[in-house]
Amino acid sequence: MSGLPVADAARALGVSPGTLRRWVSEGCPVARRGRRGRGCRTLVDPGAVRAWRDAGTGQKIEAAFHELAGRLPELMGEAMAEAHRAAPDKRNSAWVAVAGWQLAVGATLDHMREQVPGLPDPNVPEAIELLRKIAVR
What we know:
The structure is a single chain. By secondary structure, the chain is mainly alpha-helical. The protein has 2 domains: 4-54; 60-135, no CATH class. It contains 6 helices and 2 strands; from the N terminus they run E-H-H-E-H-H-H-H. The protein has helices at 6-13, 17-25, 46-54, 59-86, 93-115, 126-135; strands at residues 4-5, 43-44.
């Protein structure tokens, strides 16, 4: 199996070198693993990487994240607008922030679960817990 340096292989595949390095860490095939020292860099066979990608390894998750990235502004905007509409006191910004976060995270995860079932529920960040305590005073 012949291989190219990461930068050249990435160019041949039409991706950034960082993306190719991430794929290598995720298990994509390499012609030779790099070691420390001069002349011991990782070599990658673009044909083997294409076959690995075509086999679907990681492709579904990546496609789901790409779709989510396109929809994220819309989802977050709708969630914040819903939080504002539902706020009992429009001046209570802590309540609006907590409700907005909950609705935004829920909408985001619901959308992602359509693509990738079984995603875990998120942990509630400490900042949101603090805002929740402020909001219920």
